[in-house]
Amino acid sequence: MSEVSEGPSEPGSPVKAGMNGKMEVSIEEQAEPPEPTEYEKKKQTFITRTIWTFIMIAVFFVAMFSGHIYIIGIITTIQIISFKEVIAIANVPSRAKGLKFTRSLNWYFLGTAMYYLYGESVIYYFKHIVLVDKVLLPFATHHRFISFMLYTIGFVFFVGSLQKGHYRFQFTQFAWTHMALYLIVVQAHFVMNNVFEGMIWFFLPASLVITNDIFAYICGITFGRTQLIKLSPKKTVEGFVGAWVFTIIFGIGMTNVLMRYSYFICPVDDLGANIFTGLNCTSNPVFIPQAYSLPAWTHITRTFHIAPMQFHILVFATFASLIAPFGGFFASGLKRTFKVKDFGESIPGHGGITDRMDCQFIMGFFAFMYYQSFIAVYKASVGGVMEMAIQGLSGEEQVEVVRGLAKYLVNQGVVVDGVLECLNGALGPRRR
Fold first, then answer.
1. Residues 340 and 89: beta-carbon distance below 8 Å
2. What is the predicted pLDDT for the residue at 2?
3. What φ, ψ does residue 272 adopt, rounded to 5°?
4. Fewer Cβ in 10 A, N or C end of the chain?
5. What is the pLDDT of residue 393?
6. Cα-Cα-Cα-Cα dihedral of 403, 134, 138, 178, to 10°?
7. Is residue 252 predicted with pLDDT exceeding 70?
8. Torsion angle of the four alpha carbons 315, 219, 323, 58, in this order, in degrees rounded to the nearest 10
């Protein structure tokens, strides 16, 4: 053999470079992990979804037992994130970047709406605190005017920011923002009011929707055959009806449990209360069992004692099963319009917050309206009487009310005579 053939290749020679190149490619090919199969992807998604489901359930129950203020915090967080997700799917970043105040105005209108709605709730449920505070009183008495002026400022800024060639996009964003405010923020406001009226009016509707969703899936994959609606091809009539039955059964059982605890049925008068401190109130008649008898033609003379709430829960469960799912269908149609799979990626394995809350908003809205129309007991409250006295009476008339009330309490033995004497001395002589 010749020396050339036997000699080692020179550094940088084509032969060695070619060999090294092949070796490097083969090493890289061996180092690259194989692509996961479709089954493995679904398995990983299922595991992630399950883990985050238990995390959300744990956070929810910890917040609910810790106190109403924590649930209100969760509701606030949900409505802000949901608003962000809904606004985002209709946004065109390339166009929004060239326009001033587009995103800023969206968040400004959200802040204004929340200021108005939260203010209304705080003033309504906590009059006895807000109306006696020197700093908060002016904001409470002029709350609606302040809110209107804040909105007007945003409206003026919007008109002032209009640019030629972008009118359609800007007005579309304006309309889309207001739709999001109504569908998310306004409805979330009523969900928050449910918390103030009593934890049961928040927890029960929410749990009914979750139960219906679970059993719709179970019944659908078990014996579902007939498609329900084209917007959601996997929804079946059998799953829809089966879930209705199981939701009613769950609702009756859960109501029977929750009615036994004052923490759930009492309206909020102390935001610092929790499951351990509890709440005290006179129970709403709807939670007190009443005697019912069957018609005479049944020939059954037995008397049944049932709380009226057990009848109301049939309406709640029916709405959660037959109407609330259309909130989900609406969201599905919205996503198809903008050709997106999910509203966002806020919850790993689940998509966005809006994907999980689409049925909850309309259910919470219904619960508030139904409660106010058929269940709420309206009577004079400390906050209501104080509001009438502060806004409807002059200073001198308010002093007379205090004197008269103090004298009444002395006569009833609620307070001692010394309190009346001390009060008269502090208020001074009556003016003629």
1. yes
2. 42
3. -90, 0
4. C
5. 79
6. -120
7. yes
8. 80
